[in-house]
């Protein structure tokens, strides 16, 4: 997609190079466009190899940032007819990425009808270029926020996974210190004997003075974490119905979903440990290995109570990319510029926002500075 846009801008550049006259100012702009396109081409052709997970996303941002910079310079070089034709496109981008009280957006909304109908003045062309550059700058900032959140989620996933792996390794080396074994009841045949239930196995008819921790197995914690991971997987599958597609170049929903797996394993371990410590009233002894694993799966699925906040934050960040900016002051009015240098009638923000949708020659509307403007 980036290479297709690059090819399109290169064609526009060649066309502008062939247009006469070509003074020093125009040549400087053409050189700037060519520089942006060269940087974009170089970044688009780079493979990065093993560095791609770290450098690839920033490189994609660099490609599109340079393409947008070239587009702004080409708008400065475009003819009056082409600039008027792109005015609605610029207005749409400005409405999506600049706040309603931004001076450039307000001014462009005031002038958009005159630009489309009568062509841009030199000041209008400068306004179009600066408004487009600001809209692209805000878009770059929005995408940078998505990338930053994506990086934080992957970092958190790795750290939680390392913590879970560390617990499993510690339990393997010293199973007694983090024992998850239960002694729910005495043996039915002999009150001096007892059953011991561990996540990976069960022991029957042990002596009454048996310490459950002594029977803990190295794989107990790992078994509980696997059960919690399975419970987390079910919540990931259930959350797929809420995931929407996005045009942002970062797989933020995937990063949010990946965090659920190690978090589910960790919450399963903590949940079973709390039950063993009689932290939950009435739920201090589990009768079988199946109950231990079932509760581990339940606690693994319960991680959704925490990670859903991360899901909401991710969806909110994605919705901010390219979404219409909210009005900061909805009760403000804007003075419509009639093109004669005098203030025209005051219009509500809603009228300003729909100015781009009104084409030239609207009934009842006169030319700039004409008698109908005076009557307002």
Number of contiguous helices:
12
Mean pLDDT: 79
How many angstroms does the end-to-end distance come to? 48 Å
Number of strands: 4
Indicate the multimeric state.
single chain
Gyration radius from CA atoms, angstroms: 32 Å
| Helical residue percent band | 55-70%
Strand order of the largest sheet: 1-2
The SSE order reads HHHHHHEEHHHHEEHH
Q: Main beta sheet, described?
A: 2 strands, antiparallel
Beta strand %: 5-15%
* Residue runs with pLDDT of under 50 for 5 or more positions: 326-336, 339-376
Features of this protein?
376 residues, mainly alpha, two-stranded antiparallel sheet, two-stranded antiparallel ribbon, 12 helices, 4 strands, 63% helix, elongated, disordered C terminus
Characterise this structure.
With 376 residues, the protein is mostly helical. It has twelve helices and four strands. The strands form two sheets. It has a two-stranded antiparallel sheet. A two-stranded antiparallel ribbon has the order 3-4. Strand 1 (193-197) and strand 2 (202-207) form a beta hairpin. The protein starts with a helix and ends with a helix. Residues 326-336 and 339-376 have low confidence and may be disordered.
